[in-house]
Amino acid sequence: SSSPDDEKPRPSMLRHLTSKIKATGPIPVAEYMREVLTNPVTGYYVRNNMLGPEGDFITSPEISQIFGELLGVWIVSEWMGAGGPRQLQLVELGPGKGSLACDVLRVFSQLRSMLGQVSVSLHLVEVSPALSRLQAHNLTGTRSQEADAEDEPVYRRGETAAGLPVSWYRRLDDVPPGFSIFLAHEFFDALPVHKFQVKTEKGWREVMVDIDPEKPDQLRFVITPSPSLADERRDHVEVCAEGGVIVQQLARRIVEHGGAALIADYGHDGTKTDTFRGFKGHQLHDVLASPGSADLTADVDFSYLRRMAGEGVACLGPVTQRTFLKNMGIDTRMQVLLRNCSDPSSRKQLISSYDMLTNPAKMGERFHFFSLLHHSRLAKPKRTEGLKLEKKSPAPLPVGGFTELSFS
């Protein structure tokens, strides 16, 4: 149950923001998001466990284990497509409660005979101390401990019941190099965005956050007086510079060390305009009200991520979550589970979770999947010389989840 205090503005965060604005002037929306979500003292992600029925939002891994299982199959498929390297780093950005990683590792254990002697390790990039403790509990039980020094790149280490090593980092930069499959589920939508809009005939202006002069304890949006953007057809655009940097990091790692990245999020392919919004108690919430008490998010612009990834990697998607999961065989998996399930309430729950994940009116078309791959993954295998009967060169292995689409 919630107390009346939950509905009051967070004076510490609001005071911090108003002091900052008084000292330096209006701040960009990106800076506002960064402070509200990840401020080391009062940030929303730093203080809260915001996931699940009693939090502010529920993610697909919490709805059904099938989701994580299919992503686990995708990872094993891409590891095989890369020739089965001897080492496999599973790197998850923003791992929530650790539910997705748990489901993926369960698939790994079920496919142990296929993975053979490969050395598997789990690497979690997480800024929230509260969530990292929850992840550690769910993934390692009591088999983890925090680093002695605060400035160590790995701030927590542990191992799963099966002995698989798990490490926690605050930044992607700190994850060691090596063949890696990167997962980012509902990670990019929480990264800070700069907002721009056409305000006058003179062009683009950046949207800023300022103190309302008539209500000093409230914030408002204002427009910068000087031009700030060009070459854009939409009348309102959001730019996630931090997301662009992270995609460039992922692309560079994939080029240099091999692997793949799978990004799943709310998003669009360069078509939407104003998507900045807040969530509190599973309801939409004013983004400027009670800063620090609600989640802030903006839809991911996959066309921007594709441009930032560059020519060094192949980009697949975005495809809708419904398309991706169906291409991964969710219907077949559901039939197996229903056939082995005699309990009516469990069957009802299975059907309900399937509907939530795939129904176009629910998560099926609101979420999209996007992937970065090493170009060698899509290269045609070399033809064997001397075979007179072979007329066509063999095709590369299809990429799970994206097999219906061509890549860019």
TrEMBL record:
InterPro entries per UniProt = NDUFAF7, NDUFAF7_sf, SAM-dependent_MTases_sf
Which top class of enzyme applies to this chain? transferase
Q: Which UniProt keywords apply?
A: Methyltransferase, Mitochondrion, Transferase, Transit peptide
Give the matching Pfam families.
Methyltransf_28
**Molecular function (Gene Ontology), one example:** protein-arginine omega-N symmetric methyltransferase activity
Task: State its Enzyme Commission number(s).
Answer: 2.1.1.320
Q: Where in the cell is it found?
A: Mitochondrion
Name the chemical reaction catalysed here: L-arginyl-[protein] + 2 S-adenosyl-L-methionine = N(omega),N(omega)'-dimethyl-L-arginyl-[protein] + 2 S-adenosyl-L-homocysteine + 2 H(+)
According to the UniProt record, one GO cellular component term is: mitochondrion
Q: Which GO terms describe its biological process?
A: chordate embryonic development; methylation; mitochondrial respiratory chain complex I assembly
The UniProt family comment states: Belongs to the NDUFAF7 family.
Q: What does this protein do?
A: Arginine methyltransferase involved in the assembly or stability of mitochondrial NADH:ubiquinone oxidoreductase complex (complex I). Acts by mediating symmetric dimethylation of 'Arg-118' of NDUFS2 after it assembles into the complex I, stabilizing the early intermediate complex.
Supply the name of the protein.
Answer: Protein arginine methyltransferase NDUFAF7
This chain's source organism reads: Seriola lalandi dorsalis
